[in-house]
Amino acid sequence: MSTDVILETRGLVKEFKGFVAVDEVGLQVQRGTIHALIGPNGAGKTTCFNLLTKFLEPTRGHILFEGVDITREKPAQVARRGMVRSFQISSTFPHMSVLDNVRVALQHTLGTATNFLVSARTLAQLDGRCMELLAEVGLAEFARRPAIELPYGRKRALEIATTLAMQPKLMLLDEPTQGMGHEDVEMVTQLIRKAAANRTILMVEHNMGVVGSIADVITVLQFGKVIAEGPYAEVSRNPQVLEAYMGSADVELEGAHG
Questions:
Q1: What local confidence, expressed as pLDDT, does residue 206 receive?
Q2: What DSSP letter does each residue of the chain carry, written as one string?
Q3: pTM: predicted TM-score of the whole model, two decimal places
Q4: I need a surface site. Which of 1, 9, 77, 185 has the fewest CB within 10 A?
Q5: What is the set of domains in the chain, with CATH numbers?
């Protein structure tokens, strides 16, 4: 685990007509780690993600990526720097094949990312890398199938493949296991662990079992403020965290011993 900080926020604030959704958040994500951002509903997690990826502008504070202040940059600029986000809602092209979904994400390597009139022969150059990415997430056998036919968990695997196609230095995963059954949760958890082998991941996740099994560092938000940070074993026993989640410091978060 590296001590190199890839992403940092300093005094990050977002106000909406007097309501403070993110309140002086100072975050440091170390390169090569899986860092989880958790908290009860309304804690400010998604707003924080939207600030980091520039879908929202902060009211105050600074965001630094690899030491460069990106606070006023546009989403496309941030993505080109290597900070790539997958969304809570499925964002695949449903009527395109699984292979073509990855091809679209890989077009940037040809310098044709905004050109949808690229010849089939040109796109075929990408097929080898497409299949490598699909194999990495267990979807090689589904390559020719329309994305709409994939089970929900496999759709999320496809989103991870398309995110990996963007060659991210930092992957931001928004609720990657939301709405999944146990089997799909386990599959996606393993994919995240595998994807993190030579990358950095920042994830918002409600499933404490997932967080406890793969996160190196956890930051807990409540009412827009950081109330705790550290490894899961420590955070899951923090009285302030237990109070935030359960309304009592006399209980334990599920999976605290996991």
A1: 85
A2: ----EEEEEEEEEEEETTEEEEEEEEEEEETT-EEEEE-STTSSHHHHHHHHTTSS--SEEEEEETTEE-TT--HHHHHHHTEEEE-SS--S-TTSBHHHHHHHHHGGGGT-TT-S---HHHHHTTHHHHHHHHHHTT-GGGTTSBGGGS-HHHHHHHHHHHHHHT--SEEEEESTTTT--HHHHHHHHHHHHHHGGGSEEEEE---HHHHHHH-SEEEEEETTEEEEEE-HHHHTT-HHHHHHHHS-TTS--TTTT-
A3: 0.84
A4: 1
A5: 1-82+168-258 (3.40.50.300), 91-167 (no CATH)
